[in-house]
């Protein structure tokens, strides 16, 4: 008998094991049994051969009339052709590289055959049909009843290993399988009426009917949700047990001085989130909080207040940003917000003041040396940087808080490298401007506390979005350029976004082509800039910005744009996050169908950040009613990022959201879908929480299963803490 941990070779033999390992990475019986069917075919009632039509899924009772095997001419291998008859007509059955079946299908042998009718050289045939031989003297009627009406699983397969062959392997595995111990607590299983784990595995692959297959699928889907929530909640419990330096609010300190000089009032949402963060920082264990909010909802101010709280307690804060443009933008924003409070130790600086410094990979030696000294001495309470912050030469006097901006752009190792620079476990605040549906947050960031900013700051103007369908209305594009000129004449500025830097190239770090259709004529910054400067926009000042420029040029261009020395920025998506120019009111996105929903939402958040309304124009050659056009219509139809994130998730692969596609390992999540299974995830969360609170040691099988997942390298992609 076999267990789920048994080697596959003991069940299916060496050659098949090698194919399963090469194709899917499977090495154990459990791996194979977790290769789930995509759908089922139902063998129908018996059909007469004379009445068969191309494309029919049929089951026939027939007798072997002849069987011949021959070598293929064009390529290696052989083909077995079997002619069968039921008295009404004859039918050809073909088997490639399966000459051994000739021993089964001897002339005069009766059998039941099932498959899809095809036509080759004008003759009807079944290629690789399922069949069941009827032993001599057996009851034909009983054999027909057992064969027809059976549910046939259809598996993810390949040319090397077709579905029917996988089904054979799984049948062998199930036949050899000993009773499978069930790690799901009996109270949980009975609560939902789920089958046991053994029953679920058997019923999913060999269902008596579709109802039993669905119950098995539900049980195995719940297992994925339940184990994931256990993993995340157990991590959260471990984090709560770590010792950290409490950083409570200090009346009369730097934070109070900052609040007193703020030229605006915080929104109700900002105040609520600020209180949640202050409470976390005051605890003797590390804060692990996700701060999500719409583009322009004021996350930076909330994060800065958390940094000042830590500085009031003698600590330092590090802000990790994904790009140099964004890091430089954060530096300018924080220096502007702090004013004299960012001039610690300088003439005119406040007694309470600290310093803010920047560390990036392209700094000159002198600037880098000065920034490293400020960080190491503690003179810089706030250290902003890109991946360069992770370098060995970067040291802190007392790193108390790490803020990670655009969390999805950083891996586990990068975050841990920064945490290792702290003497004690630091507090952690991760931010994202890509709104996450509640269930996704629960599934991906389940070991973090989640704070959400939904409202926009007072005075922020709405953004209007329109689709410009070039194929149907080419004149609309000319009107877009006129609109930019009009806005500039009123003292405003504009962005024009192109997917590519130069013709025939794409910028991997800036461009997400997952959603786009291939095209040979895609707008590029280097072509579009000169074209518009010498034509439709010759009356305004146009400048390019893209990721291949030097850091100095990018920074000076952004600074000139901020200072209104440039009217129109023709850019790739380097401006997607963090760029804050309140005077910019118009954005034109070329080939907008090349971008994902969330990315379009992020991009348009760069306009309408001041007191004037924003306008975003999505230029596309996509056909009406095409999926690409429907995406753009969805973006134009709402500014609710949470609604758009749901649309985005529905249209994308689940792995892109959960991170499995980047993990390099197989995902544990095979059946779970975060939107379809929302209620199940919430139930699993509650059940997992109960188990963790009562102590998982009381469930030894469950504890062992969780330990296995924790040890598996594939669980690293879940580690978003």
Show the helix and strand layout.
Elements: H1 9-12, H2 14-24, H3 29-33, E1 39-42, E2 57-71, E3 78-85, E4 90-96, H4 101-104, E5 110-120, E6 123-127, E7 130-133, H5 140-147, E8 151-154, H6 163-176, H7 186-192, H8 197-205, H9 210-240, H10 254-261, H11 268-281, E9 288-293, H12 299-312, E10 316-320, H13 324-338, E11 355-359, H14 365-377, E12 380-385, E13 399-405, H15 412-419, E14 427-432, H16 438-444, E15 449-453, E16 463-469, H17 475-489, E17 493-497, H18 525-533, E18 542-545, H19 551-562, E19 568-571, E20 584-589, H20 597-604, E21 614-620, H21 627-637, H22 641-651, H23 654-658, H24 678-694, H25 700-711
Parallel strand pairs: 4-6, 9-14, 9-15, 10-12, 10-13, 11-12, 13-14, 16-21, 17-19, 17-20, 18-19, 20-21
Antiparallel strand pairs: 1-8, 2-3, 2-5, 3-4, 5-6, 5-7
Helix pairs in contact: 8-9, 9-24, 10-12, 11-12
Account of the protein in words:
- The chain is an alpha/beta fold and 721 residues long.
- The radius of gyration is 32 Å and the shape is globular.
- Residues 505-520, 655-667 and 713-721 have low confidence and may be disordered.
What portion of the residues fall into strands of 2 or more residues? 15-25%
Q: Report how far apart the termini are.
A: 41 Å
Largest sheet: 7 strands, parallel
Number of strands: 21
Radius of gyration, in angstroms, nearest whole number: 32 Å
How are the strands ordered across the major sheet? 11-12-10-13-14-9-15
- Categorize the overall geometry: globular
Q: What structural category characterises the helix and strand content?
A: alpha/beta
- Helix count, per DSSP? 25
Return the average pLDDT rounded to an integer: 85
What share of the residues lie within helices? 25-40%
Unreliable stretches, pLDDT < 50, 5 or more residues?
Answer: 505-520, 655-667, 713-721
EC number: 5.6.2.4
Keywords: ATP-binding, DNA damage, DNA recombination, DNA repair, DNA-binding, Helicase, Hydrolase, Isomerase, Nucleotide-binding
Pfam families: DEAD, Helicase_C, RecG_wedge
GO molecular function: 3'-5' DNA helicase activity; ATP binding; DNA binding; hydrolase activity
